[in-house]
Amino acid sequence: xxxxxxxxxxxxxxxxxxxxxxxxxxxxxxxxxxxxxxxxxxxxxxxxxxxxxxxxxxxxxxxxxxxxxxxxxxxxxxxxxxxxxxxxxxxxxxxxxxxxxxxxxxxxxxxxxxxxxxxxxxxxxxxxxxxxxxxxxxxxxxxxxxxxxxxxxxxxxxxxxxxxxxxxxxxxxxxxxxxxxxxxxxxxxxxxxxxxxxxxxxxxxxxxxxxxxxxxxxxxxxxxxxxxxxxxxxxxxxxxxxxxxxxxxxxxxxxxxxxxx
Length: 261
Known about the structure:
α2 (about 20-30) packs across α9, α4 runs parallel beside α5 (about 105-135) and α5 packs parallel to α6 (about 155-175). The protein has one domain: NAD(P)-binding Rossmann-like Domain (Rossmann fold). It is of the alpha/beta class. The chain has an 8-stranded mixed sheet with strand order 3-2-1-4-5-6-7-8, sandwiched between helices. About 45% of the residues lie in helices and about 15% in strands.
């Protein structure tokens, strides 16, 4: 798999922590050139610098995926730095809050929709013309088990956005198949990330209880998810464009296929 990734160029939104950081690290170690994007300048620069110290080709660009000009600038920067772009990992997302729908404020609704839906949409909108001109490319969007295979009454908003990401993934995959553009969604079961730490208020018992929803009964790791994402980028034939892949502890568990499949 590493040979297929050597010399490739990847943009990773939300690439400084959790799943994004695991994918950034694995891609860089496999010889890819990585541009990390995120809103937290200090955290992003630190993550990129730590990887650069290991001899990897990694840079950071502060980017707000809610702003279309910022996204177009991100892809321009990848081309300027590395001479092209092969992969987009659309990973930026926020969780909002866990709790009854009646306690979800309008401000939280706007924030979650603007990053989880608008941000993914705009990143694909901006990268698709580039991939079309060059004859192909691969997009992986981060979704979740929430809102897809398991109802989660305390995460109605998060679930809605994650289902929306799968819908966008499948629609774009179908619409751009003739352009040699492949689009996937990776859907982690509960994964041990800073997002889950925030949702559980850093309480180990609460995290363990949520992990009990996973088929494995254990929290997945960012590396479990990274293994699947890298296989998608490397062209693993077991994944077909439009697939949404559930990932648990140990790797892929099942697919959510388009209605036409």
